[in-house]
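Let's practice the habit of predicting before peeking. Look at the sequence and jot down your guess about where helices and strands might fall. Then scroll down.
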Amino acid sequence: MKNCIIFLIIAFACLANRSISQVRQLHIGDTLPHVVLSNVLNYAGGKIDLADIRGKILILDFWSTWCAPCIKSFPKSDSLQRKYADHLFILPVTGQDRRMISAFWSKNEYTQSLSLPTVVEDTLLSAYFPHVGVPFVVWIDTDGTVMGFTDSQYVDERNVTKAINGKAIDWPYVGNNESFFDFSKPMLPQQYQHDSVLTTKVQYRSITPHLDGVQTRTVYDTLRGENAKRVLLVNYTIMGLYRQAIRGILGKAIGPDNRIVVKVRDPGRLIYDKTKHYKASWRRKNTFCYESIWDKHTDNRRMMEALLADINTYFNLNGRVENQPTECLVLTRIKDVPFKEKPLGKSRSSLPTYRTSTDLVDALNRRSSIPAIDESGLTENVNIPLENEGDFWQEMGLLNKRLEPFNLRMIKTIRNIDRLIITDH
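Done guessing? Here is the structure:
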């Protein structure tokens, strides 16, 4: 009897594996076959027959515990699900372990009070809808037809109501065209499907529009047996192109965003505004590909100076580095004495810790419009515990109260620093 049971279990496992291997990837316009999901958390009975969802818009939201944007989007999805329950079914999906997800779901601040269910230990839906990363969202209409693929930002009331009412949605491109291109060869003839031969004697510089289905890519290499050098930047923002050029010219990065001054008529093509655009749509319009091919003896700095000139010419801008006296936040020591690490009380031992003074200044630069500089001279770990959110990040007096026990303080003063200035040409 035991042998019979074991045989049946093995046979069932083999059948399950075979069925997954035979699943055909679904594309826009395809119909989702009959699917029963038997591993569902936060749902009565723990099983969902997707045939029962027909008549509603089905949104499959693939996620993982390490994906912060995925998790932060769940409360918004939960609110939409409650509001449009008669017309909508939002179903998060993860391939992660049931026990781990159950513990995570009940304790995480974004998920612990949700009414949304989630599929766990998924293999079937991922086989129907293979994807590279998360968040990855599949939209399926009331008849079970695949409508589109997006990220979680698109799951908002505007698009949900459009889907419910059968209105057109401006879907982003979420295909994968990586295999279409050979990035070891010049890109220009591939982009425009040219058969013309590019020899090492043909040198060019080009800026072309966004490539759908291709990730951002940075290539500095040699071509054709080291006969030519190349710079290839794929799907870069204008700001990203400037950063690459300045790094090559100065030999160092320009620094955080608060060291960049943008004074142009149309800042929207340089700086993404999440209140106005979906990021995928904005990137499709405002990212570009740059390629330049040079003689192998060309100096790298000259190539980067050409990149800077090409950006300015193509986009009719004037980007340049200027060393300017600038109001800065400067981290200093209160007293010139050796640093001594302070023991943490129990109430603060669980807080995020900034191990070095550089970590602390980097965190401040991410939150402040005023450039922050480290002049503490500390090389040892400081291990300062600070919450990720709090008024002290914007209020210097409050921040200094947190820093004082560590013999550190922030002062506001003038320093000459390099800044990237971008104006209209």
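How did you do? Residues 1-18, 194-200, 344-349 have pLDDT under 50 and may be disordered.
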